[in-house]
Amino acid sequence: QKEVEQNSGPLSVPEGAIASLNCTYSDRGSQSFFWYRQYSGKSPELIMSIYSNGDKEDGRFTAQLNKASQYVSLLIRDSQPSDSATYLCAVNPSSSNTGKLIFGQGTTLQVKP
Amino acid sequence: GAVVSQHPSWVICKSGTSVKIECRSLDFQATTMFWYRQFPKQSLMLMATSNEGSKATYEQGVEKDKFLINHASLTLSTLTVTSAHPEDSSFYICSARDQGGTGSEQFFGPGTRLTVL
């Protein structure tokens, strides 16, 4: 079992729709979770961090965390073509005291005009 | 804030040569920096954790004698790919953790694309 799993996609949604990206992790003791966006040929850009169960909203983005289910998701409302990118889920494992992150393989999102 | 730079942004070298990549945190201090490698269509793979003033911690399977890491100050870490070969061609990305931050957020540099001929 991979430490952090994501569906590679592509996930295709029409412009204006809600895109839902999902991620599961294996380390039950993990405390910190992150979503990064990566455009083709570029480095990752931090979108959201979440540390507590529940929802965290920032503009069009909402991160959801359920530690009991070891599940974290990212919702993008009113999706725009510029949101088309690969979204990486990252988890800070409980075994690390350096803040290292384990990344999922990423989900490619395509927003069609 | 939280800007990380990398230099060079791309490099082409001959097989057998060494290449040094610099990673700098521009507006914050970073006790810890991380080096990743990303092959096409694949996710980020952590190579090593760079610790200011001490030896780097390498992930399993990463040759420490081939990928030399030096973290001489709170704002600079370098990765040297020694005796590079074509299979080392990849996108190398560093990240830095804000020492003054409350979480584990890592901020990434723009990456260095290495091509070994």
Describe the overall structure.
The complex is a heterodimer of chains A (113) and B (117). Chain A is mainly β and 113 residues long. Chain A contains no helices and 11 strands. In chain A, strands 2, 4, 5, 9, 10 and 11 form a 6-stranded mixed beta sheet that branches. In chain B, the strands form 2 sheets. In chain B, strands 2, 4, 5, 6, 9, 10 and 11 form a 7-stranded mixed beta sheet that branches. A 4-stranded antiparallel beta sheet of chain B has the order 1-3-8-7, with no helix packed on it. In chain B, strand 4 and strand 5 form a beta hairpin. Chain B is globular and about 40 Å long. Chain A binds chain B through residues 32, 34, 36, 42-46, 49, 51, 88, 90, 92, 98-106, and chain B through 32, 34, 42-44, 46, 49, 51, 57, 93, 97, 103-111.
- How do the helices and strands follow one another from N- to C-terminus of chain A? EEEEEEEEEEE
Helical element count of chain A?
A: 0
Provide the β-strand percentage band of chain B: over 45%
Q: Percentage of helical residues of chain B? A: under 10%
Shape designation of chain B: globular
Task: Specify the oligomeric state.
Answer: heterodimer
User: Which structural class fits the helix and strand makeup of chain A?
Assistant: mainly beta
Question: What's the story with the biggest beta sheet of chain A?
Answer: 6 strands, mixed
Shape assignment of chain A: globular
Radius of gyration of chain A: 13 Å
Segments of chain A where pLDDT lies below 50 for 5+ residues? none
Average pLDDT over all residues of chain B = 91
> What is the ordering of alpha helices and beta strands of chain B?
EEEEEEEEEEE
User: How far apart are the first and last residues' alpha carbons of chain B, in Å?
Assistant: 37 Å
Strand content of chain A: over 45%
Helix content of chain A: under 10%
Low-confidence stretches of chain B: none
Ends distance of chain A: 36 Å
Q: Please summarize the sheet with the most strands of chain B.
A: 7 strands, mixed
- Give me the secondary-structure category of chain B: mainly beta
